[in-house]
TrEMBL record:
CDD domains per record: HDc
Residue positions where 4-aspartylphosphate is found in the record: D408
Domain HD-GYP: 95-291
Species annotation: Maccoyibacter intestinihominis
Domain of life per record: Bacteria
UniProt keyword annotation of tRNA processing present: no
PANTHER family per the UniProt record, alphabetical: CYCLIC DI-GMP PHOSPHODIESTERASE TM_0186-RELATED, LIPOPROTEIN
Designated name of the protein: Stage 0 sporulation protein A homolog
Alphabetic keyword roster: Phosphoprotein
Protein's UniProt keywords contain Heme: no
Length: 478
């Protein structure tokens, strides 16, 4: 089977996985042949895509991490605010994951806006348990961790859906209300004598950041409960990779980049490392774009090489990107995602950006092709100054101060990290730096955080993605 984005679903395709509504009722059963009318109904309900069975991928088996029945049962318990049953569900989730011979995290959870909060909580619970297993937690610890993850967003039930799904920018009052959900979740649990204190602590603190910039209490480092750190990573990853009324979904690779870029400031580095060891970047069945321009379907992932799975082309031939004979000349550019930003939306985005004072970005990269890619993405929105080395960047900074530096890492004579260390010593003002690099190992990420990098983007990048990250660092996002 394989996953097909809704825009690519065609008449006559066969459904491989049943689709449920927000009340966990079966809308369409697996094996159903899709008509044009059914496809329209699926699209109108807001589903991002479906799994189909076809000859090309009939040998590709994608298993649920937990059974669909258990997932639906968890949603029902949350909808009915049956906290006792939700704890029983948490125990069942841990039991299924512990009994699994191999844990598969390849199945995409198909959600609509209506059931997002409940299914998101279940996804976060599953991801949290998998991370906890990777960190060596006991069965009792895993059950409490899973319970906390199931409960982490309970407080959103008391917040108006119009605010939760608001497509535009929240007012300060609305934002404050939304940020209150972790406290509200805790308040719903604090008098429950049968719920352990560490479950309540994790629920309260799941939006705390390592550097103290989180909420509700601005806790730092070791003051944050370990369960909360795990739920924080799982929560952000699932939220980023989901379509919402106010944003398009990041691909899984982009969501992982965000986690890596936040190591040490937003997220605990050990938790992110455990996450990277367990969660595939490109789930089986998704279509990806390769660096040679071809599209292919991921058919197998390889432990320890999350960026280089085995893929299948549409002529039926397979290519193991982890095979040393392939080398590094073919890579995955990104997951194919047809949920692109509307053209008019992008026109308005650029019009608004151009109406502001033009900011200057210094791009430091020894590769002409990389500089061209950055210019293609950002030129017209910002003034782009490009130099080819760290020493040239330092020379430029003696004359002018940019608003942002986009710095490559792997450069001759002086690496990007070394260049930033010099810049931090010689030039006051702490100019924000975003590193751009094809390297994505944890050690490199940590070295970037050590020089106070504002963000980290893995090459190659998509135009809309780098625009979003740059705008965020410059304080231009909502």
């Amino acid at each position: 089977m394989r996953f097909v984005p809704i825009e690519r679903v065609e008449h006559g395709m066969m459904l491989a996985k049943s689709i449920y509504d927000y009340e966990t009722r079966t809308l369409l059963r697996e094996g159903k042949l899709l008509s044009d009318e059914i496809i329209v109904r699926i699209r109108e309900r807001g589903y991002p895509g479906i799994y189909i069975e076809d000859e090309l991928t009939k040998d590709v088996v994608i298993q649920d991490t937990i059974t669909a029945e258990l997932r639906n049962h968890a949603v029902e318990a949350l909808q009915e605010l049956d906290l006792e049953e939700a704890v029983n569900v948490a125990e069942s989730i841990v039991k299924q994951l512990m009994e699994a011979k191999t844990i598969s995290l390849d199945m995409l959870d198909l959600r609509t806006f209506d059931d997002y909060t409940f299914r998101h909580s279940v996804n976060v619970a599953v991801l949290s348990v998998v991370i906890g297993m990777g960190m060596g937690y006991t069965n009792e610890e895993l059950v409490d961790l899973c319970s906390a993850a199931v409960f982490h967003d309970l407080g959103k039930i008391s917040i108006d859906k119009a605010i939760l799904n608001k497509p535009g920018k929240l007012t300060p009052e609305e934002n404050e209300l939304l940020r209150s959900h972790s406290q509200r979740s805790y308040d719903m649990l604090k008098e429950k004598w049968n719920i352990p204190a560490r479950v309540k602590a994790a629920v309260l603190s799941h939006h705390e950041n390592e550097d103290g910039s989180g909420y509700p209490n601005g806790l730092t480092g070791d003051k944050i409960h370990p369960f909360a750190k795990i739920i924080h990573v799982a929560d952000v990853y699932d939220a980023l990779s989901s379509d919402r009324a106010y944003k398009k979904a990041y691909t899984y690779s982009e969501s992982l980049e965000y986690l890596m870029g936040g190591c040490g400031t937003l997220f605990d580095q050990q938790v992110v490392r455990a996450f990277m060891d367990k969660v595939p970047v490109y789930p089986k069945g998704v279509t990806v774009l390769l660096s040679d321009g071809r599209e292919a379907i991921v058919v197998e992932n390889h432990l320890g090489s999350p960026l280089r799975p085995t893929v299948r082309f549409f002529d039926g031939t397979d290519l193991n990107l982890n095979d040393s004979s392939v080398g590094m000349n073919i890579t995955i550019i990104n997951q194919v995602n047809t949920q692109t930003i509307d053209e008019q939306e992008m026109i308005e985005f650029e019009k608004e950006r151009k109406s502001r004072e033009i900011k200057t970005i210094l791009v430091v990269d020894d590769m002409v092709t990389s500089i061209r890619s950055v210019k293609a993405a950002l030129d017209g929105l910002y003034k782009i100054i490009a130099v080819r080395s760290g020493s040239e960047a330092i020379e430029y900074l003696q004359k002018a101060t940019p608003d942002l530096i986009l710095m490559d890492i792997l450069m001759p004579n002086m690496s990007g990290i070394e260049a930033v260390r010099v810049i931090r010593q010689r030039f006051p003002g702490n100019i924000p730096v975003i590193f751009l690099s094809s390297a994505s190992d944890v050690q490199t990420i940590l070295e970037c955080k050590d020089v106070k990098a504002a963000d980290y983007i893995v090459k190659p990048f998509k135009v809309n993605y780098i625009r979003e990250r740059v705008a965020a660092v410059l304080g231009e996002n909502e």
